[in-house]
Amino acid sequence: MKAIRVHKTGGPEVLVQETLARPQPGPGEVLVRIAAAGVNYIDVYFRTGLYPMEVPYTPGVEGAGVIEACGDGVSDLEVGQTVAWAGVPGAYAHYAVVPRERLVAVPRGISPEQAAAAMLQGMTAHYLTRSTFALQQGQTALVHAAAGGVGLLLVQMAHTLGARVIGTTSTEEKAALAREAGCDEVILYSRDDFVAEVERITGGEGAHVVYDSVGRSTFEGSLRCLRTRGVLALFGQSSGPVPAFDPRELATGSLFLTRPSLAHYTVDRSELEWRAGELFQWIAAGDLSLRIDRMLPLEQAAEAHRLLEGRATTGKVLLIP
């Protein structure tokens, strides 16, 4: 089979396609023929060494495809069934072996491409709006990178919950997408000071929650956008890691800071099935719109990373083996 491999940390050029033996599933594992692999910022963090990963490895922690074989002990899934997963490496390939406990069955009416586009970013948006800070009617949420893969889903979910949604984007084109997804107000951070704009929009009260996937360049401003006892959910660092700071800064408003991750919000099987199940229901019903920015062949993995890092995408990027 073909697979993208990383032998050393570095730029997108370290993503190289190689020929490997097709793997075989062990007990409790499933062999999946991959139809689509999601490209996510966490793949960049592993590639650059920000998140350590033993080399060589096959990147990609999100995918969907058809079961080719089941290992011993797997009796509730069948060959030919469409499944999806997030949080297991090895998706940038023609085949992957995935633990049964991390797989979810993809219902009829949901394509593998839709499933691969929804799993990681969709469940991230789900836990942020349902669990990290459970939004309620009338509350105000600030969403950074509102036209990105997670951002567009976050905005839709927050809007559905009845929140007032303020988004930040870099261009008018992205602002239009954010408004279409449900943003009540959009701030062009490339033109305006988002802290001042949030203060103006909220009449000086600030936001109940800030969902921040950007990190270094927005962190201090995000804290300043919060109202008393507000929550900053820092779930990414596309601009770089946040430097050390004095926790006493939170005392300005008895603020809360959390650094959540999907792994901790899908700890057990029931939670994984709840989040993925609701996502698939919403997509099938037309209540949640997925924006797939582009689908690239597997061998263009490096280009996919360049586009993602260059903030040249709106929505999801998929690799198609």
Summed up:
The protein is of the alpha/beta class. It is built from eight helices and 15 strands.
Would you mind describing this structure in some detail?
The chain starts with a strand and ends with a strand. The strands form three sheets. Strands 3, 4, 5, 6, 7, 14 and 15 form a seven-stranded mixed β-sheet that branches. The chain has a six-stranded parallel β-sheet with strand order 10-9-8-11-12-13, with helices on both faces. The mean pLDDT is 97. The protein is globular, with a radius of gyration of 20 Å. The chain has eight helices and 15 strands. Strand 8, helix 3 and strand 9 (164-169) form a beta-alpha-beta unit. The protein has two domains: 2-118 and 267-320, Alpha-Beta Complex (Quinone Oxidoreductase, Chain A, domain 1), CATH 3.90.180; 137-259, NAD(P)-binding Rossmann-like Domain (Rossmann fold, 3-Layer(aba) Sandwich), CATH 3.40.50.720. The longest helix is centred in the middle third of the chain and has 21 residues, at 112-132. The protein has 321 residues and is an alpha/beta fold.
